[in-house]
Known about the structure:
Keywords: DNA-binding, Transcription, Transcription regulation. The chain has twelve helices and twelve strands. The chain has helices spanning 3-14, 19-25, 30-44, 61-87, 101-118, 131-139, 186-189, 206-213, 227-235, 282-291, 297-305, 310-321; strands at residues 49-52, 55-59, 93-99, 122-128, 145-148, 158-166, 168-173, 194-197, 220-224, 240-244, 256-260, 268-275. A five-stranded mixed sheet has the order 4-3-5-12-6, with helices on both faces. Strands 9-8-10-7-11 form a five-stranded mixed sheet, covered by helices on one side.
Amino acid sequence: MKLHQLKYLVAIVDNNFNITAAAEKIYTSQPGISKQLKLLEDELDLKIFERSGKQLIGLTALGEDVVKHARRSLQEVENIKRLAQDKNKIETGSFSIATTQTQAKYVLPEVFKRFHARYPSLQIDIQHGSAEQMNDQLERKQIDFAIASDNAALSPDIIKIPCYHWDRIIIFPQDHPLGDLTNPTLEDLAEYPIITYKEPAVGESSLVKGMKAKGLSPNIVFTARDADVIKTYVRNGLGIGIIASMAFNPKIDNDLIGFSAKSILPRCTTWIAFNKNLLLRGYMYCFIELFAPHITKEWLNGYINKEMSAEQNNAEKNNENSLPMHRMWHI
């Protein structure tokens, strides 16, 4: 068994079992991959892929286990390289982060400004997607970090570090009737069309849950992942908006009124996640400390390495409850 065979195997899976696409992705030939795949199956004396004629259509049950171990083996080889690069202070290459529009536009610019000043030769790749897409990218090790606030459950191989809390804000035009109220309630919001973030793939948003608990039925007319899109639709009179507080600037958004929703909606938690099999490099620790200064390298290593017993899980919940509110502490 050779490492390049494992690399080919993983490339085929990551390219939807299309050998031609896999060959293009890793800059080799389709016949070469097919030959090495046959040699690997012959050596292991097992069938890794399900086939329909000559076409690969999926993994066998044993094949799924083989691919999991292949990913880990390739990651360990990569970790050895990372270890050497850190030792030799090689600070080039690519650092990839998947995140939401709100984080990318309203939180990360100043973080990356300071980070880039420290690591000017490091190429930063920012991607966007849902929490589910980020989870898949982390599992496949296509990105280094994911930053989001969705409550989606991540796979067991993903470490999720809660970083800070933030509140939502209700926005509407200056002449809207809600502007006459001191503290709008859920009952008040239920009277108007609502434009807010897209619902999670699994379960309901806290807005919907909160309204249902009061016997209310929210009239959500538009959803989007982009806070600026929501603000645009609010400005066009299509409804009131509910967005992250950091996405509203009273000076820039002075045509809108913003009311904090902290008294009627639960706080949200922003987290940073990465694959537990990934060896964190020095610049990754640096990024985390710039993003959330209260998280030190020592605390993070302790969090990663400890066994999560039931008591420790409860302790983590208590710790999450004591997280700081989001502030532009990095400015």
